[in-house]
Specification:
Layout lengths: L4 E6 L5 H14 L4 E4 L14 E3 L1 H10 L4 H7 L1 E3 L2 E4 L1 H8 L5 H8 L14 H10 L5 E5 L4 H10 L4 H14 L6 E6 L3 H11 L2 H12 L2 H5 L4 H22 L3 E6 L5 H16 L1
Parallel strand pairs: 1-6, 1-7, 2-6, 7-8
Antiparallel strand pairs: 3-5, 4-5
Helix pairs in contact: 1-13, 2-3, 7-8, 7-12, 8-12, 10-12
């Protein structure tokens, strides 16, 4: 059975974004109908990007506090298993300055990715898998399968490895009917690859990244700080992600991209995809 879902994972600076785009390009070149969803896509079919979660009571309170925006929120909200899900980033993009910053900040604190993994919402993967099973195309997801759970579980909350591993296994089980293929982009020298990424990205990105990785969860409990400390957290994250790979039963490949040799990496990726798509 051909895979209908390709999951591209790896640490920041490993080349996973390039790999996700290459995967899409290779499939299209070989006549495969494929759709790519990069990190941060607000229209993601399985991942709750930019979505806030409310109980019924909390949402009613929000409507009272939001004044003239209450009707808009009511139009946009969806109810799933008793939960109120509000795509606040999409609303912000549509309303712009019409969405007050103070209200936006308050709603963003209820983002799904602010929830501990024990309370997080995984059923979106089940709903996606049912639809994707009948779609005549291959889906390509960057980051959301391993990176997001590890970032929330380990980095943000410092929870046990078992909790994070079990959560990812639930996602894998939900998507099992799609015969997922996981491509993990590896780097032998994490320090070097991350520092390379730092030189290529804005300073604000680095400052935000370091703050997120050192001010809470794993970083805070281990008294980690600065760029060097952030790299230490990334090393711990890599260890956990490799452990997750060991616990998965799906087809998974680690592609060594340490040399950042584009043509070689594309060739290796093409060989993997040949086994499942063309």
């Amino acid at each position: 059975m051909k895979s209908k879902l390709i999951l591209v994972e790896g640490l920041p600076g490993s080349g996973k974004s390039t790999t996700a785009r290459l995967t899409h390009d290779i499939l299209i070149e070989n006549g495969v109908n494929a759709e790519l969803y990069m990190e941060g896509n607000l229209d993601h079919p399985a991942d709750y990007e930019g979505v806030a979660y409310f109980t019924e009571e909390e949402f009613e309170d929000l409507l009272i506090e939001s004044g003239s925006l209450s009707e808009i929120f009511q139009d946009w909200v969806t109810v799933k298993r008793g939960r109120r899900l509000l795509p606040y980033m999409k609303i912000k993009n549509e309303l712009g300055s019409g969405f007050p910053d103070e209200l936006f900040a308050a709603i963003s604190k209820k983002d799904v990715y602010e929830l501990p993994l024990e309370e997080n919402i995984a059923e979106s993967w089940e709903e996606f898998a049912k639809q994707a099973a009948v779609d005549e195309k291959v889906y390509i997801f960057e980051c959301c399968f391993i990176q997001n759970p590890v970032t929330v579980g380990m980095v943000k909350y410092g929870c046990s490895d078992e909790i994070t591993i079990d959560y990812v296994k639930k996602l894998a089980q939900a998507a099992a009917a799609l015969n997922p293929l996981l491509v993990y982009v590896g780097q032998e020298d994490l320090d070097k690859s991350f520092r390379k990424a730092v030189t290529e990205r804005p300073e604000d990105w680095l400052n935000g990244f370091v703050h997120y990785y050192t001010s809470q969860g794993y970083g805070l409990s281990n008294k980690i700080s600065g760029l060097e400390g952030t790299i230490d957290v990334l090393k711990a994250r890599r260890e956990l992600e490799y452990s997750i790979l060991d616990h998965l039963t799906m087809n998974a490949y680690i592609l060594n991209n340490s040399q950042f040799d584009f043509d070689k990496h594309k060739g290796n990726l093409r060989n993997v995809l040949k086994r499942y798509h063309y």
